[in-house]
Amino acid sequence: MLRDRYCIVHKLGFGSYSTTWLGKDVSKGGRYVAIKVMTADSSVASQEAKVLRHLADKTSFDAHRKAKPQGVDSTTVPSIWDEFTISGPNGTHQCIITTPARMTVAEAQDASYTRLFQPRVARALAAQLIHGVAFMHTKGLVHADLHLGNVLFKLTEDSRRLPIDKLYDKFGTPELETVRIIGNGGAQLLPEGFPTHIVVPSWFGIKSEDVKLHESSVFLTDFGESFMPSSEQRYHSSTPRILRPPETRFLPEEPLSYPADIWTLACSIWTTLGQRSLFELFSPTDEYVTKEQVDALGMLPSPWWERWTARDDYFDDRGELLDTTCRRMTLEDRFEHSIQAPRRAVGMEMVGEQEMVALLDMLRSMLAFIPEERPTAASLLTCDWMTKWALPDLREVERAGL
Question: Which residues bind ATP (predicted)?
């Protein structure tokens, strides 16, 4: 029991800077909570808590705004219900009590052979991603590490109502594994501060195609890289290389800002709607990432094109592929390859012609090479694809009240 209030129920997962546990808050009618325990004395821990507090503050909006802009939804960021510290053999750990989740969007796809969400679910997920980024931006924050591994499905209402014994019946009891250090001389004593056992994370998720619309409520997470452009200049990106916006490479002297999130948001929406990433690379290098971006979106802006010394390995002066055995994969080609063809193969509804035009218009604007030419997240809320296709499906999720 932590703080004489939180009972540990199961292990949800772990990352570089924290381990997250499913717990029960005995002071709040036994509601389930996520207990995020940070690594000892971690600077990321204080940053995460700081961002969550800022997001929860109803008065802390961007300097140009007096209140939350109309239409921006704050439910796509987690609530912070409590925070405290605990002491252990490795130091002091900050603990954050927040919204419990069942799986990441990426994990749902990884669990599936098709890697596809049902069309209405995919639209609702994409709409929530836009809402989440728009809300963060109105708060003056850049997420700076947006990808589907940092988007979590909320624990379903059915699961939240289960008593602990029924939860164990459904998902299994915690599984412990003994920690051993094996050297040349066999088993060795554990160093001071090492745990004698570890708990295997439980799987509360399901395959992507099995996610129902009413249970597709998600929120953004992992704000350890988030920052305020108004008070901090950030010149590097910790986002996976294939998702990094091109300015991280071609404008290294310019600080990153909100448009960097718009680029990664477009890449995340693409993967949510389809089976494959927009840019597919098994072992990406900076040069090949740029090659993929040019292949899909056209030539770089002139100063960047001239500065890109490796372009002669891939393209002629007109931006045409030198390798004549390969066909250029434009954005439209990738849409067919990543979204339409996989849906067709499994008998799933494909994107209609009118929706495809609206969707590609939105994505192409978000993937503008020049950061200042990308739309704001708030403006995306009123674009054709959102208003005619995505938001109607999101309203069904909201009516479910997850």
Answer: 36
